[in-house]
Design goal:
251 residues; alpha+beta; 2 domains; five-stranded mixed beta sheet; 7 helices; 10 strands; elongated; Restrct_endonuc_IV_Mrr; endonuclease; plasmid; nuclease; tRNA_endonuc-like_dom_sf
Length: 251
């Protein structure tokens, strides 16, 4: 039983990757007893550290089992990645398999091509409750990555600002552009977005001449907030926790 360091090329034998995301990979690991791999990553925006742990599922593809983010140092992230993989390995040995004993072991060719960022989004698709563990800034980055996948050019505003738009998103054509402002609220389930937030975002929307504004939250909206938003429904969309799960459903 051991977790061993491997090369990037060896890691690619398990996970086929693209390199278009918001993270950079620094180290790669695998278990020598289970179908389990891990990768140490750094955020290209805020320069903090994280990791993704992936395990082979019944269809032969590797998918996320655990994700870490907002870790201050490379060494702390590396140590946490190693410890988590070791814990899964120990648990896996007790169970004999990561999946049911009655399942058939399949040796299928890899058919999924995903960036590590897509694996992170796939993790939150399976575990949306873990969205509440993200820092507000990491939640903004996650939403920005989803919006980028929709075909927008995205820009994250500085983490210290508070001006009713965390993400500026454009779709540009040869003759015009479509400007969208996205405000992100990483709220607890019982902390609803109030009507004051709606009014603030609408004010920025008109001041900055956006085509559309969107508020995305891990929580929900008060009745007053939804009633206010209906008055400007052509300009403002509200996306709550359930909508966010729908946005993640394609990963």
């Amino acid at each position: 039983m051991a977790i061993e360091l491997i090369t990037e090329n060896e890691f690619s034998e398990y996970v086929i990757k693209t390199f278009t995301g918001i993270t950079k990979e620094f180290a790669w690991y695998r278990s020598n007893t289970l179908d389990l791999v891990g990768v140490l990553v750094q955020d290209n925006i805020d320069k903090d550290w994280g990791y993704v742990i992936l395990a082979k599922e019944e269809d032969g593809n590797y998918r996320p089992q655990d994700v870490g983010a907002s870790i201050d140092s490379k060494s702390d992230a590396n140590n946490e990645l190693y410890a988590k993989m070791l814990a899964i390995e120990v648990s896996g040995e007790i169970k004999d398999e990561l999946y049911d004993d009655n399942s058939v072991s399949l040796d299928l060719p890899k058919i999924e091509i995903m960036s590590i960022d897509d694996h992170i989004k796939a993790y939150f698709k399976k575990h949306p409750e873990d969205l509440y563990q993200l820092s507000p800034r990491k939640f903004e980055e996650l939403v920005a990555s989803i919006i980028k996948d929709m075909g927008f050019d995205v820009e994250l505003t500085p983490a210290t600002r508070d001006g009713g738009r965390d993400i500026i998103a454009y779709i540009r054509t040869g003759i015009s552009s479509y400007l969208t402002h996205i405000e992100c609220k990483r709220y607890a389930p019982d902390n609803k977005v109030s009507v004051d937030i709606i009014r603030s975002v609408v004010g920025v929307h008109h001041m900055r001449n956006a085509n559309k504004s969107v508020i995305v939250t891990t929580g929900f909206f008060t009745k007053d907030a939804r009633d206010e938003a209906k008055l400007v429904e052509n300009s403002l969309d509200l996306k709550d926790y359930n909508d966010l799960k729908d946005m993640l459903s394609k990963y």
